[in-house]
Design goal:
heterodimer; A: mainly alpha; 10 helices; B: alpha/beta; Rossmann fold; Alpha-Beta Plaits; six-stranded mixed sheet; four-stranded antiparallel sheet; about 30% helix
């Protein structure tokens, strides 16, 4: 246990240094505030254009639905990319992977530690985006005090699922060349479409809805919206599930995805060690 | 699975074959359908059996592509063998890597690895933490080693600001800061200036000899370095161990032979030396800036010297020096491999 904790701590420190230490502290804080807000403005602009075209009176529920989904999608993009790129960056850019890999640590935990800093930065970004939305854009959000524990539990479970998916991608990246970082950008793109981030599952065709229902993140986004903005009335097709059912589903899927991530990671590591690809850099 | 012997490092019939790559020809030539060329599997290690004793400074000498780095990667648990077994500190590298990792470290020369946003000191400290070295002890060791390796002035410089040589010194410190029982050094002085290389050689020798239980496996293609540093040397070529003994014994193996070194005007044709009776082997190196060729001949006796000189002068080249020398490791290498390292 001591080895795991030590590994996690040092890896998280390394990740934080790499995420935050590239500039002066004041500039980093400024960047951390402006980046998510600027990202939100892109969404706001899209919404304004759509409203101007089709529904001049606007749809505050739809806007809040979109805004909250988009805010929490920051976690998806950041955590998936953060976990996937650990192996790639250590191998291709810093060329340190062979020394990290042969040290007496759990490399799996090392990846989790590196991703932890991404989560920390993302928590800040999500909070800034939500606060900005409530105060300046009229986003309808109200988290009841009694729902805070459930919100924290679901957020942790959602992040656990994300980390597990990220580790699966990491296991694959043991075997792939550097240009495959596109995988860590493409997979979140699929989640963006099928998990009800911007629009509810009800607008998707049946096969699209089936895909969405098979991905645990769909339920995470749904329960998060129910807790943060209970007054939104958008048909998500998941209204038939009560909150405990969705929570149970998140618990089961996070355990299942954790198991899957261990298997895929171990397989990727084994085949990379067998093929001599652990520290093989891409030669172009 | 534990090795029954007490070797620090042991390999038994260790073989590593890398699968061949398929090279696809995208450009079709006129009249051709395009095709795939199989580059074929590459045998990097071919039945290597070695035993390195605890406390030994053991050298692997061989040209590029001989299999030295592949062997170190297998022993450091980075790569699985295709066949055979390897044990480090008594543990099987394929089945039981974790206890091995607690006792080893590795440094590869000529590379520039490191996290550019961290300082040199932070980089080394971070790796020491992976090995559970107490932070205070780690910082003291880092300071000591930075003084020894001449990196003290750069201790707080970001790694991205360090030169290649400075990064190499930093990596050398990273290797020693964890105080491993077994250290793998893969071409540790490659690309370093003369002074830095000397400091590293002396430090490694002292580290092994003054501290009980420390073992070093060093690969090099610098003959003099291996000769100076190593208790025993294995000569490896094309994945096979050709000889393994102390430097003195290796040289003794060819003492019955005679080594001649000649400096002559640059000669174009060396084929006339091939097959000369009494010539066991020879190597040839050109010094273009001086318009000279340096020839080393391993001869059965002094008989062929006249014929060699005649062959050189018949090409219009002048002989500037002729020296009969005591055998060196290079002579041993040429005798066994049939060519020099350069």
């Amino acid at each position: 246990m001591n080895t795991y904790w030590r590994t996690f701590k040092v890896a998280a420190w390394l990740g934080w240094e790499m995420d935050s230490n590239w500039t002066e502290p004041w500039l980093f804080v400024l960047y951390s505030v402006i980046k998510p807000v600027a990202g939100a403005f892109i969404l706001v602009l899209m919404y304004v254009v759509f409203v101007a075209i089709g529904r001049p009176q606007g749809d505050p529920d739809a806007f809040s639905y979109m805004y909250i989904g988009n805010s929490f999608f920051i976690f998806v993009a950041s955590v998936l990319f953060g976990t996937f790129q650990v192996i790639q960056s250590d191998r291709e850019w810093y060329q340190t992977i062979r020394y990290v890999y042969i040290s007496p640590i759990s490399y799996y935990v090392y990846i989790l530690g590196r991703a932890a800093s991404k989560i920390a930065v993302s928590v800040f970004a999500v909070a800034i985006t939500l606060v900005f939305g409530v105060f300046f854009l009229g986003v309808r959000m109200h988290l009841a005090l009694s729902d805070v524990p459930l919100f924290l539990v679901t957020t942790i479970l959602g992040l656990a699922v994300l980390l597990a998916i990220g580790i699966c991608l990491g296991g694959i990246s043991f075997l792939t060349a550097k240009h495959t970082h596109g995988l860590a950008e493409g997979i979140p793109g699929l989640f963006y479409v099928f998990c009800g981030v911007l629009f509810p599952l009800s607008v998707l065709p049946d096969w699209g809805q089936a895909i969405g229902r098979a991905i645990p993140l769909t339920y995470w986004f749904d329960i998060t919206r129910r807790l943060l903005a209970p007054t939104i009335s958008v048909n998500t097709t998941l209204g038939g599930y009560d909150e405990p059912t969705i929570l149970l589903f998140l618990v089961i899927s996070s355990i299942a995805f954790f198991g899957l991530s261990v298997v895929i990671y171990k397989l990727g590591e084994y085949f990379a060690r067998k093929a001599g690809k652990i520290d093989m850099t891409t030669s172009y | 699975m534990q090795s029954p012997m007490t070797y620090a490092v042991e390999t038994r019939d260790l073989t590593r074959i890398f699968a061949g790559k398929k090279k696809r020809r995208f450009r079709r030539k006129a009249g051709s359908n395009g095709s795939e060329d199989s580059l074929g599997p590459v045998t990097a290690l071919d039945g290597v059996s070695l035993g390195i004793k605890e406390g030994e400074l053991f050298g692997m000498l061989g040209p590029n592509g001989a299999g030295k780095t592949t062997l170190i990667k297998i022993l450091a648990t980075l790569l699985l063998p295709t066949a055979g077994q390897a044990f480090v500190a008594g543990h099987d590298v394929a089945k039981d890597p974790f206890p091995i990792r607690q006792r080893i470290n590795m440094v590869s020369g000529g590379e520039t690895s490191g996290y550019g946003l961290l300082t040199a000191r932070e980089n080394i400290w971070m790796f020491s933490q992976f090995y559970g070295v107490p932070s205070k002890v780690s910082k003291e060791r880092i300071d000591d080693l930075m003084h020894i390796f001449g990196l003290w002035d750069k201790r707080d410089a970001k790694v991205r600001m360090l030169s290649t040589g400075q990064r190499q010194k930093m990596n050398m410190i990273r290797g020693f800061v964890t105080d491993p029982d077994i250290l793998f050094l893969d071409e540790p002085t490659l690309g370093l200036d003369v002074n830095a290389a000397r400091v590293i050689r002396e430090y490694v020798m002292n580290w092994v000899r003054k501290r009980a239980g420390k073992t070093v496996l060093l690969t090099s293609h610098y003959m003099a370095e291996a000769d100076q540093m190593c208790d025993r040397i294995a000569i490896i070529d094309k994945g096979r161990i050709l000889a393994c003994d102390t430097p003195a014994n290796l040289k003794r193996m060819i003492r019955t032979e005679t080594t001649f070194q000649l400096e002559v005007d640059t000669i174009r044709d060396t084929t006339s030396f091939v097959g000369l009776r009494g010539v066991k082997n020879f190597s040839h190196k050109d010094d273009i800036s001086k318009n000279r060729s340096h020839l080393t001949f391993i001869l059965e006796d002094e008989g062929p010297v006249a014929e060699i000189l005649s062959s050189i002068t018949s090409q219009g080249a002048k002989v500037h020096s002729l020296q009969k020398s005591e055998p060196t490791l290079e002579d041993v290498f040429i005798s066994m491999v049939g060519r020099g390292l350069d």
